[in-house]
Amino acid sequence: MRIALAQINPTVGDFDGNYGKIASFYERATAAGVELVMFPELAVCGYWPADLLEKESFIARTEETLLRVAEVTRGDGKPAILCGAVMRCDRPGEKHVRNVAVVCDGGQVQFVQTKMLLPFYDVFDEQRYFEPAQQQGLTMIKGQPVAISICEDAWNDKMFWPRQQYPVDPIEELMKQWAVLPQPLSGNRIILNISASPYWHDKCEVRYRMIGALAKRHRATVVMVNQVGANDSLVFDGASFAINPEGKLLAQSHGFVEDLVIVDTASSETIPFAEDSEQAEIARTWDALVLGTRDYLHKSKFSKALVGLSGGIDSALVAAIAVEALGAENVTGIGMPSEFSSEGSVTDARELAENLGIRFEIAPVKEIYNRFEDSLTPFFAGTPFGLAEENLQPRIRGTILMAVSNKTGALVLTTGNKSEMATGYCTLYGDMVGALAVIADCYKTEVYKLSRYANRERRIIPEETLTKPPSAELRPGQKDTDSLPEYDVLDPIVRAYIEDYTSAEEIAAQQQVDVELVRRIIRLIEINEYKRQQAAPVLKVSKKSFGRGRRFPIVAVR
Amino acid sequence: MRIALAQINPTVGDFDGNYGKIASFYERATAAGVELVMFPELAVCGYWPADLLEKESFIARTEETLLRVAEVTRGDGKPAILCGAVMRCDRPGEKHVRNVAVVCDGGQVQFVQTKMLLPFYDVFDEQRYFEPAQQQGLTMIKGQPVAISICEDAWNDKMFWPRQQYPVDPIEELMKQWAVLPQPLSGNRIILNISASPYWHDKCEVRYRMIGALAKRHRATVVMVNQVGANDSLVFDGASFAINPEGKLLAQSHGFVEDLVIVDTASSETIPFAEDSEQAEIARTWDALVLGTRDYLHKSKFSKALVGLSGGIDSALVAAIAVEALGAENVTGIGMPSEFSSEGSVTDARELAENLGIRFEIAPVKEIYNRFEDSLTPFFAGTPFGLAEENLQPRIRGTILMAVSNKTGALVLTTGNKSEMATGYCTLYGDMVGALAVIADCYKTEVYKLSRYANRERRIIPEETLTKPPSAELRPGQKDTDSLPEYDVLDPIVRAYIEDYTSAEEIAAQQQVDVELVRRIIRLIEINEYKRQQAAPVLKVSKKSFGRGRRFPIVAVR
User: Which residues bind L-glutamine (chains A, B) (predicted)?
Assistant: First the structure.
């Protein structure tokens, strides 16, 4: 069977735009001669619509658009479509919609498979909205039987996962049905999977291994098409592929771009899996952050961004990402030195801006700061310099950035990293202001790796920025290490606690560090929950990022 | 059967504190002579623990504490306990914990009933964590059969609700089991329900009606004990009660305070239901906001609060609530006039502060504002006064408030109302700063009603504040009605859209307003999602508040 994997980038709720992409990819696939064109999960409405699914008009428009999609398959010899959508269900005691994979052929909807396994962990809330399938069945497309599944349906193989998340395995059920098909239909087992599977570290590798194991176990060709593009915090990497019953790769699409790839399930030609490496993962992270930034702005109809440039590595990396995402002409850097800023803070920022070819302006903080002190006399008079005075500086900077944003229509990109966000080493309404927290799911040690990656072709981030000790420069001679351990000590502690819920004692043993240090870090993480709940949306690149996939109370004894 | 309804206020994760409350209420109930003491859902760990349930140590401490609770029932003639907790379950394909009601008697756990209906809508995420019960069974306490249910288990009666949310009704199932009990056991039907049912408008009335209908339908006495106290955004009103098989009230506890009430299920003495009224609902809303504010601060170990006083009604109401919650000596008001502030802005604020007996200070904005303009010259020079200049003023105020907060250890209370939050008539990082958004689930028209309620005993909020036209005072002569319709037109539109997902056309017809106006308001609501996602936690008092119960994408075409 010749199948086109139409890896499109839908926008949530952009029914006309999404339909346009589906129709145009369908046309290209038709010209290439295929029997089936596969589109991702919820392709018609875009993933993730969240509570828009509660709106009657949203469901109605999804259903209308699905009928338009079906219509494009009308006509002799035209390929079928397999496409994700939502459909109503109205039985008492059930949720009001289902997440469905729809086969359209000959101008009509021919078959509907409801998603059975609804993820309800981390960022996923599918059980909030969708009624799960009670059963699944094989169907025929162009005379060929196929097993259709939606994303998570393929993620519960008991032979692959040490622990099953769900009591049933829809793929196993479908393959039991296949086993009793008459010859010759039972010959070529084909499992189709339409997905909206977001990127995070190592996810791509897991998909290959898991689907490969599934293909071998069931002696089936598995074809998986994944959404590409970012919607809010989630970046979908695409990276669609097909694997044959020997677990060999038949075809794959590019990551982080729209792509159309054609696979013949009967082909004996296979391609090698790319060697994976830490460097490849850094490149994917970079691509995810670039795509996440571009889609956040462009899908919201913004073209320009602002970055506060401190001369430090975080803001330098964010500016570099912004330039790749939006173009140098659409990025402005603003230096906002205070009396505690080093000379390097401006010279390094200026050098970065020159390397990137972006506009750079200076908006000084000192005079504003002095007037705040005057105004605050009733509360500040006679008190020593402390946290209040330190935080005033980033809050003035945040206000400057937002003023320029309001004046120019450019969105502010937040520059904090995950190590800071975790430990609260950041100022709410200060350096935390912005529309999008570009690197807030990257630990400081990753920020260095990504910055070196930014410099892979030519020097963009200045040497000084890469080598000087990190400092918030909010008091004389301040260094990050006054408050925190070195980042190569801190980051593994934070990661183990946040991503794996490892206990203090286990972390101390694993990392060979003092358990009291670990407890201090954990306490910092916990008491700073209030800051993160008011943070800008964070581009997710790890399995556990700050944001809606991590739901902790603020008021709690820990 | 003599039962004590122990309506306690637990703190999430405060195992020792929660145990202490359980032991002390148990002791009081024992002295009063009862056979059973009922505590709320998840009383051992506090509701709502959210992702703390992912932490092994949290589950372990809950289980340990439950054993301590069981221990207090050891000894001759001591009453049994029915108490909420979480317990592990380790079967493959299942979630790792269950939400349970545990009967402790004679120093041991005697019976465990798992919650069957797990709410998954609005603020509830229980399916994220808990494995539901597959079945429920009657048990015996002190020789008396009882049917035990947990909160939502009692909320799916097909005779009461027009639409069932779940395919099963655990109460109906339990009553079927009751029907086949031998005489004389089958005589006195008792349904016990332990709840953590948060307050919102009319919820208390719904509970009475629904439980009353259940009691009559099943000819049972229903005893419901509810958590009291606030944890983050959710305020639990308590208001526990018992209803006899005729639907008459046997006992009820006070709302919004800890309480111990004893009921004899065989008693023939009933008490009348209180007449409900709009005024009673306003009083409950007030109590909810006071309790929500007090618990947010006190459970976080803060005692003091700051409020920016503009002379307007929103900040006046928040200050009045803060004083009732925390005491006048713990509240400070700060007036921050800019060049566009009316004279009344300071005089009305000062009068309010005097009426409340709180400290009041002035921190002027004008000089700071001028220095910002200087610093912003590269971007502002030659441009007309506009949104950027307007927003600068509240952002300076936000920065002043946060500086005083950092200096004095007082938390900032945010003063925005729901009408503003909905339409985006508020400044991110400006008037939106703060630890807790006290009245952000109250429409402006409700703010007036609550303010009149604040003045019920003596004049607290000045007459001028109550009568002058609302204005943000960010440019000369500005009025809210320059940008928005009158609040008595706006609020019903916002409410219908946010709380009931009503379409623009239906709202226009219902409210007799121009559909284009409705569309403009809906558009404002939708495009301002980005502000709300960075807002302070909102005390929930309506069925749909901003915050985690309302999950919309920022990037979407609507």
Answer: 121, 197, 203
